[in-house]
Amino acid sequence: MITDPTGAPTGAPSDTRERTVRSGAGSTSAAAGSRRTPAAEPPRASAPRRRRRPHTPLDPRPSVPLTLLTGLVLLYTLLPLVWLVINATKNQEDLLGSFGLWLGKDFRLWDNISRTLTYDDGAFVRWTLNTLLYVAAGAGGATLLAVLGGYALAVYEFPGRRAVFAVVIGAVAVPGTALAVPTFLMFSGMGLANTPWAVIIPSLVSPFGLYLMWVFTAEAVPAELLEAARIDGAGELRVFFRIALPLLMPGTVTVLLFSMVATWNNYFLPLIMIKDPDWYPLTLGLNAWSAQARTAGGEPVFDLIITGSLLTIAPVVLLFVLLQRYWQSGLAAGSVKE
């Protein structure tokens, strides 16, 4: 059989010869391609950079000057406390003759605490009990009245509600020192001066606490929940104590803390109301020791004054640390409108 150069028989049909030629050409090109050097792959494009999220008021840009300013404020706040703790460990000689921000020769903290509690026939203990009485009766009563008043103003509609609101706002703006002298004249005329009632009764009024509980109640107690309880047959007292009061706990703790701190640190009101040292609070008692130390012929007890100051602020700091989750949420009441 005669074949053509492609290897196909000459007598074969033309389409067969064409397929043979194509297959031969394809194999030839494949063989040639296998002998070629592979071309270099193009470089991969680098991954696009992640765009920074734009800064917003809720996610502000870090500010170095603001950070430094905050650090200075923190230092200004903590430095007196550090100084107080360090110097409460010194005796009278080390207190006056050593650097204020460094420990003395001897660690005398426990000895200073013991002497503070027993000095002057236990006057510090007596002043502490007086302060606890003023705080329990004054701050506790102020918190109770603020909770009751704020709940009533937020829940019930009655004539003169706006007038009450204006009076409360005006009372918040009036400083307590401006009312000290009129309060003294009024209590003196009633015969209550130089008694614990002269300190307790004015402490029962807390315009800021009343306003805070008013706002907090309006945000924290849904009106629908109260209406549902009334439909189920619950009385107003039961609705308040079983439903509203648990919801008002953060605001109540916040008002209680502020009232306690205001009564615990109250100095000006007891100063003009109390003349008997047996009814002094801690603020007046420590001031009396300081005046005694500065008096000619008086016994200097500066180490006891500093130790007493440390013992005075310790309960307040401890309360704020233990109850911080309550008063922080209470301060945020009404800050966001849904």
Seen as an oligomer or otherwise, the chain set is: single chain
> What's the end-to-end separation, in Å?
98 Å
Q: What is the radius of gyration?
A: 41 Å
What share of the residues does DSSP label as strand, in percent? under 5%
Please estimate the helix content.
Answer: 55-70%
Structure overview:
- The protein is globular, with a radius of gyration of 41 Å.
- The chain has 338 residues and is an all-alpha fold.
- 23% of the residues are buried.
- Helix 4 crosses helix 11, helix 4 (109-155) crosses helix 14 (302-322) and helix 8 (207-220) packs antiparallel against helix 11.
- It contains 15 helices and no strands.
- The longest helix has 47 residues, at 109-155.
- The model is unreliable at 1-35 and 334-338 (pLDDT under 50).
- The termini are far apart.
Core attributes:
15 helices; single chain; 338 residues
Short description:
This protein is an all-alpha fold and 338 residues long. It has 15 helices and no strands.
What is the strand and helix layout of this fold?
Blueprint: H1 14-35, H2 64-87, H3 92-97, H4 109-155, H5 161-173, H6 180-190, H7 197-203, H8 207-220, H9 223-231, H10 236-247, H11 249-264, H12 268-273, H13 282-294, H14 302-322, H15 324-331
